[in-house]
Design brief:
Elements (H helix, E strand, L loop, with lengths): L1 H5 L8 E4 L1 H8 L2 H4 L3 E4 L2 H9 L15 H10 L3 E6 L4 H12 L4 E6 L5 H14 L3 E5 L4 H11 L5 E4 L3 H5 L8 H5 L3 H8 L4 H24 L1
Parallel strand pairs: 1-2, 3-4, 3-5, 5-6
Helix pairs in contact: 2-12
Length: about 220
């Protein structure tokens, strides 16, 4: 996993983002992750990687990081965007909020991330036919990564980004995090407050994940 994090980025690969929770999921799907550029989302993971001499910056597909840069670049270069993720109806509100904030953004299509196995193939075919330059996929790991891999495998040649809970959060407003929360790096605590169902992830899964991550880093440094 660490080798995938530190390798050079390629414009031909889609991009996904790791926090301690998704790191463990990714660790069980190394073959899939090898097809992605990997960025680090989460201050805790950034700190640990830097402690072991790996120079990384926190990047995430949300309004505090890469999302506005991607949208502004798409507007500037007249590139289309397709969104897929979150629940039915929630996606409608999220897209409306994005379009209100970026009225010149060419959104060529969108849909929720819930589909049957039979329906999935037709969704992939439809997205390819629309030929978006960007596909933003928020289905949660590892489903979002698999969707972008499958889309590439049927011939789509654009740029893909996973976005985790971005679309779900954007349905509550284009700026999910209050500015002072972002300024003081308290995003994780705000999500605990706003999404209490994530408490288990932060207080049980994260500590276990950090032990595994430190183990991987020690092995990497000793290799």
């Amino acid at each position: 996993m660490i080798n995938l994090i530190v390798r050079d980025k390629s414009s031909k690969r889609p991009t996904t983002f790791l926090n301690p929770f998704s790191y463990i999921v990714a660790r069980r799907n190394i073959k899939h992750l090898s097809q992605f550029n990997i960025e680090i989302d989460g201050g805790m993971l950034v700190v640990v990687l830097r402690f072991f001499g790996i120079r990384v910056k926190r990047k995430s597909f949300d309004m505090t990081s890469l999302a506005p840069l991607v949208f502004e670049n798409a507007i500037k270069n007249n590139q289309s965007v397709f969104f897929i993720g979150t629940k039915p109806k929630v996606i409608d509100v999220a897209i409306q909020n994005i379009q209100n904030q970026f009225p010149e953004l060419n959104i060529c299509g969108y849909r929720d991330g819930y589909m049957s196995i039979e329906e999935r193939e037709s969704v992939l075919t439809k997205v390819k036919s629309l030929n978006p330059y960007f596909v933003i996929c928020g289905m949660g790991a590892p489903l979002q990564e698999q969707f972008l891999i499958d889309l590439k495998n049927i011939g789509w040649v654009g740029k893909g980004y996973t976005c985790g809970g971005f679309l779900h959060q954007t349905a509550d407003g284009i700026e999910y995090y209050p500015k002072w929360i972002t300024e003081f790096g308290l995003r994780a605590f705000y999500r605990m407050y706003d999404e209490p169902q994530l408490l288990k992830r932060y207080f049980i899964n994260y500590p276990i994940a950090m032990i595994v991550i430190v183990y991987d880093l020690i092995k990497y440094k000793m290799s």
